[in-house]
Amino acid sequence: MPCTVCGRSCGEGLWCPPCAATAVHSPEQARPLIRRVLRWAEGLGIVLDPAFVLRVALTDRRLDRPGHLGSTFIRQTMTARGERRRVLGMALRRGTLFSGTVAHELAHVWTALRRWRLYPWAEEGLGELLAYRFYQDLGTPEALWLARRIETNPDPLYGEGFRRMRRLIGEGEGLRRFLRQR
Hints:
This protein has seven helices and three strands, in the order H-H-E-E-E-H-H-H-H-H. By secondary structure, it is an alpha+beta fold.
């Protein structure tokens, strides 16, 4: 039977051994991984205001549409001065691909906090670019396999969005410059 995450053979279970070993089931498992992704993101220029509290909930429910492993909740209101976006938090599915999902959802948090308005393909592409970069920097065989999966994703919003954002801003210093824009 194929692993429900990576497609590799896993015998009778839902996940292959590498995917099962990195699965997150509790807040206690999630906290250090979230901190690790936030520290990594600071190196790219994603520095959250110390007064900002990032609320994260773990869930077993399917989010948005099949295959979604995370969602960022943003409240948009119109004021006399224009649109105001407030990040309420993110929900992450328990299980596999957790750190990459945190990196992806962090892109949504960052664009909302910066008051950036991106096309949907650009916003999802930026999220995938951050997840890809995280996996590349992690450098384990499993992480590199997941990065390759992002590169070849046929989805028009996520896969093509990733490829377009990668062409537009790059992966290294270009990504850092993009994230540090005011």
